[in-house]
Design a protein that fits this description.
- The protein has a seven-stranded mixed beta sheet, sandwiched between helices. It has a four-stranded antiparallel beta sheet with strand order 11-12-15-14, covered by helices on one side.
- It is 42% helix and 14% strand.
- The protein is built from 14 helices and 15 strands.
- It folds into two domains: 130 residues, Aspartate Aminotransferase, domain 1, CATH 3.90.1150.10; 227 residues, 3-Layer(aba) Sandwich (Aspartate Aminotransferase, domain 2), CATH 3.40.640.
- By secondary structure, it is α/β, with parallel strands linked by helices.
- The structure holds pyridoxal-5'-phosphate.
- Pyridoxal-5'-phosphate binds next to helix 5.
C-alpha cells in the first residue's frame, strides 16, 4: 500500500465537529468519536499541495469558477460512473443538505407531501418538517438480505398522498445499501406516473465496496433521467467536507432551467476558490488514493465484523455495500433504548450515532464510522466488549 491510513492523527484543536460537539451531543468529552461522517485520514497529498499552493498566493479575492473545474467533474463522472453528462447539466451547489433544501423551496410549497424512506440520514426529515412540508414515510424493509425498498407501499403513497417530491439516499445512509438497478428503475416508473420529483442524494456514490456497483439514479432509465435532480460531491470520498464542494446534475430541461435559475438568482451556483481547486485536484490526481482508501475501509469492515462475531455476537453488523459507515443491529443485546445509549456512552466511552435519530425503524441500531485507523476500532471494540461483560 502506497498510502498511510494507519497513523492516528489527533484532531483536537482543529475545530472538528466530531470532537468539539461531543459534550453538547453526548454530555461528556472522554469518548472515542466514531459518529460524524468524515474520515480520520489525511486528505490525499495532491489535494493538500494544490490547496496550499492556492493559499500561497496570499490574495483571496473573488474567484471565477474555472472551466477546468467543470471539465474535471464531467471526466470523473464519465470515467468512474459511466455518465455521459453535458456541461450545461451540472451546477455547483454549496453542500448537499442545502441543495435538498433549495430543491424543496424551488419545487414545493408549505403543506406539500414529501416522501422519505427511514431509517435514513436524519436531515431529510428535519428539512421536510422545518420547511413546513408534510412528511410521508415509506419505511425500508429489513430482512435477511439487509434493507430493501417497498415499491408497492411507495406507489400506494403516491396514489393517496400525491407527494411533490421523493428524497432518495443512494447509496443509503445508514445501511450502506448501494441500491440495485431494478429497484431504482421501479421507483423511477412510479415517480414518472405520478409526477413526483426525485431528489437523489449520491454523496456516498463514489465509494462502492466489495465489488458492488453504484448506480446513479438518472442513469438507470429514461424515466429516471426525466424526473430527477442528483446531488454529488467529492466531499466524503476525499475527506474534504469542510470545503463545501458539491454539485447538482439535472438531465431534464424544464427541471434544470427552473432549478439552475433558482441557484443563479440567489448566487448559490459559484464554487468558492478552494472548493474548485480541491475538487479538480481530487478528481484528476487522487484516483489511486481513493482505490487504496476503499481497500482499507473494506479491511476495517471485515475487522469489525469478525471481531463482533467472535466476541460480541449479540451485535450484528449490516455489511455496507458502499461508504465507511456500519449500521449495527444491537437489538440482540436486549436493552431499552436509554440503557443501550448509556452502555455506549457511559460504560464503553464511545460516541456512535444513535439509530433512533434516523427515524422509524432505527431504534435498537447504532451507526459506527469506520473511516479511521484500524487501531482505533480495535480499542473501541475492546472497550465495548468489556462494558458488556
Ligand atoms: C447522505 C448524506 N447526505 C448529505 C450529507 C452532508 O452533505 P453536505 O455536507 O454536503 O451538506 C451527508 C453527511 O453525512 C450524508 O451522509
Amino acid at each position: 500500500m502506497n498510502f498511510d491510513f494507519d497513523t492516528v492523527i489527533d484532531r483536537h484543536g482543529t475545530d472538528a465537529v466530531k470532537i468539539e460537539a461531543l459534550v453538547e451531543h453526548f454530555g461528556r468529552k472522554d469518548l472515542i468519536p466514531l459518529w460524524v461522517a468524515d474520515m480520520d485520514f489525511k486528505t490525499p497529498e495532491a489535494v493538500r499541495t494544490a490547496v496550499s499552493n492556492c493559499l500561497d498566493s496570499g490574495i483571496y479575492g473573488y474567484s471565477s469558477a474555472p472551466e477546468s473545474y467543470y471539465a474535471s467533474v464531467l471526466k470523473w463522472e464519465k470515467d468512474i460512473n459511466g455518465l455521459n453528462l453535458r456541461r450545461k447539466e451540472i451546477c455547483y451547489i454549496p453542500g448537499i443538505v442545502r441543495g435538498i433544501s433549495f430543491a424543496l423551496q424551488c419545487f414545493s410549497s408549505p403543506g406539500d407531501p414529501i416522501i422519505i424512506q427511514p431509517p435514513v440520514y436524519m436531515p431529510f426529515e428535519r428539512l421536510v418538517r422545518e420547511n413546513d412540508r408534510k412528511l410521508v414515510e415509506n419505511p425500508l424493509v429489513y430482512g435477511n438480505d439487509g434493507y430493501s425498498m417497498n415499491p408497492d407501499n411507495f406507489e400506494e403513497l403516491c396514489r393517496t398522498e400525491r407527494p411533490k417530491m421523493f428524497i432518495l439516499c443512494n447509496p443509503h445512509n445508514p445501511s450502506g445499501r448501494a441500491w440495485d438497478h431494478e429497484s431504482l428503475r421501479t421507483i423511477a416508473e412510479i415517480c414518472r406516473k405520478y409526477g413526483v420529483l426525485v431528489v437523489s442524494d449520491e454523496i456516498h456514490g463514489d465509494m462502492p465496496l466489495f465489488g458492488n456497483r453504484f448506480h446513479s439514479f438518472s442513469s438507470v432509465s429514461d424515466s429516471a433521467a426525466e424526473v430527477s435532480i442528483t446531488f454529488k460531491a467529492p466531499s466524503k470520498t476525499f475527506n474534504i467536507a469542510g470545503f463545501m464542494s458539491s454539485y447538482a446534475i439535472v438531465k431534464n430541461d424544464s427541471i434544470r432551467e427552473r432549478f439552475f435559475k433558482y441557484l443563479s438568482v440567489n448566487e448559490f451556483d459559484a464554487p468558492p476558490l478552494v472548493a474548485a481547486v480541491a475538487t479538480r485536484e481530487a478528481y484528476e490526481n487522487a484516483r489511486d488514493w481513493r482505490v487504496e482508501m476503499l481497500k482499507y475501509v473494506e479491511g476495517n469492515i471485515r475487522f469489525v465484523s469478525e471481531y463482533l462475531e467472535r466476541n460480541i455476537p449479540r451485535i450484528r453488523p449490516v455489511i455496507p455495500q458502499a461508504s465507511f459507515l456500519i449500521w449495527l443491529d444491537c437489538r440482540g443485546v436486549n436493552l431499552t433504548h436509554d440503557d443501550l445509549i448509556d452502555l455506549f456512552i457511559n460504560k464503553a466511552r464511545l460516541a456512535l450515532n444513535d439509530g433512533a435519530d434516523f427515524g422509524t425503524g432505527g431504534e435498537g441500531f447504532m451507526r459506527l464510522n469506520v473511516g479511521c485507523p484500524r487501531s482505533i476500532l480495535e480499542t473501541a471494540l475492546n472497550q465495548l466488549k468489556i462494558a458488556l461483560e
